[in-house]
Design goal:
disordered N terminus, three-stranded antiparallel beta sheet, 48% helix, eight-stranded mixed beta sheet, alpha+beta, 430 residues, Beta Polymerase, domain 2
């Protein structure tokens, strides 16, 4: 059901304060691409401020990825101003006032370009939880009023002046994640914000959450069914890439969100044990640790989340029962590495260690084996079988399979001559 958006006055009772601070120069503000973009906008008399993740992460001293700007200018004005300066634009979200500027950092066009998303100040006129109809007649306060979290509604002038209309700076310093204004209204505008709340809590919070935000998420759990599988999967997997998603997953379980989006995710203890022993965060390996499924269940889960074929196959390959014996001798480990491949072998070693007791030294040994493994090449091919006068057909495949098993059981030591001799014996006997 579509609802009319709340007025800014109900969301932010106080008008914006004067700029609260200036920050030290930031490297990305002085990049040639950023300077070229700002110069083109300035030449056209267009004011712009940086906003969102780039400002938030810069204030935290973290690396930035995407650079977003907000401006009172309409999209067509931005496109015209940048075209005059020879800067390419892409109408990535023109209906919602967003264009992407593609700026080369060097005049000789070498090196990757920098992408900037530039969005016109806007306010929501009508929303249905997935889509919104917007108006491009907002001021900076109204624009802040429609954003999701206070820490994402901090604006930065090109000269380093910070504007904080909704108290995002204090929340950032306190590691507190709050919705802008009424949490229920923010969620009603976009149901995906429920999942974004827990993901951002995992990155920027302290693990207990904001009571008002969590209450609003609990009340809106049933609306998660309106989201596409792709959007749900994207948020879940992005959550699993943060350093420690377990506290956020615990809150999701307590609030009924996890049972709605990932009912298989009942093995938080196994995931908690995996995190400190894994070499680096890996979203699919973490998902495999979190869910309680067999191979069929993993395939069904991958289908429900619309995962890629490669992700589905990997998830299925990491589902128990695991064909992996961590206690096996060196020969058994070589055979497992050959059969599984070093990536799956490594993942199963980590999952086994998270599932049951394994000494740190033994896990380190297994991971070192995987890292140094070079798979031996099987010396025979189908043409070697055909050269014995065996006609094309299933018998060639059966003989090759039997030879491969013999070669593996011999610890891969038989060379081509030995394999050919053994092949002749088997072919004669059968």
């Amino acid at each position: 059901m579509r609802t009319a958006a709340s007025s800014p006055a109900t969301l932010i009772p106080n008008r914006p304060r004067d700029p609260v601070t200036n920050i030290a120069p930031l490297p990305w503000l002085d990049e040639p691409a950023t300077r070229a973009l700002l110069a083109a906008l300035h030449q056209a008399g267009i004011a712009a401020r940086f906003v969102g993740g780039c400002v938030r992460d810069a204030l935290l001293g973290r690396p930035i990825a995407d650079i977003d700007l907000a401006t009172p200018a309409r999209p067509e004005e931005i496109i015209a101003a940048l075209a005059k300066a020879g800067i390419k634009t892409v109408p990535t979200g023109i209906a919602h006032g967003t264009v992407t500027a593609v700026v080369r950092a060097r005049s000789d066009c070498r090196g990757p370009p920098r992408h900037f998303e530039i969005t016109t100040l806007r306010r929501d006129v009508e929303t249905d939880g997935r889509h919104a109809r917007v108006a491009f007649d907002a001021d900076w306060v109204e624009d802040a009023a429609r954003r999701d979290f206070t820490i994402n509604a901090i604006y930065l002038d090109p000269d380093g002046t910070v504007h904080d209309p909704v108290g995002g700076l204090a929340d950032l310093a306190a590691h507190r994640l709050r919705f802008v204004g009424d949490p229920a209204q923010r969620i009603a505008e976009d149901v995906l914000r429920i999942l974004r709340y827990y993901r951002f809590e995992a990155r920027f919070g302290i693990g207990s959450g904001d009571p008002a935000a969590r209450a609003a998420c609990r009340e809106a759990v049933s609306q998660l069914a309106t989201l596409s599988a792709e959007r749900v999967a994207q948020e879940l997997l992005r959550l699993l890439t943060v350093p420690d998603p377990v506290p956020a997953l615990r809150m999701m379980a307590e609030d009924g969100v996890l049972a709605t989006t990932l009912p298989e995710g009942t093995r938080r203890g196994r995931l908690e044990k995996l995190i400190p022993i894994e070499p680096a965060p890996d979203k699919l390996r973490r998902l495999a640790a979190l869910v309680a499924v067999d191979a069929a269940g993993a395939a069904a889960l991958a289908g429900r989340l619309r995962l890629s074929n490669a992700a589905r196959d990997r998830l299925v390959g990491l589902a128990p029962p695991w064909s992996f014996d961590a206690a096996g001798n060196a020969r058994a480990q070589r055979q497992a590495l050959y059969r599984l491949g070093p990536e799956r072998y490594r993942d199963l070693a980590l999952l086994t260690a998270a599932e049951s007791a394994m000494e740190d030294a033994r896990l380190a040994e297994l991971l070192a084996l995987a890292a140094s493994w070079h798979s031996p090449g099987f010396p025979l091919a189908g043409r070697d079988v055909a050269a014995l006068g065996i006609p094309p057909g299933p018998r060639i495949g059966r003989l090759l399979d039997e030879m491969r098993r013999w070669w593996e059981e011999g610890d891969f030591t038989a060379d081509r001559a030995a394999c050919l001799a053994r092949l002749r014996e088997i072919a004669a006997a059968t």
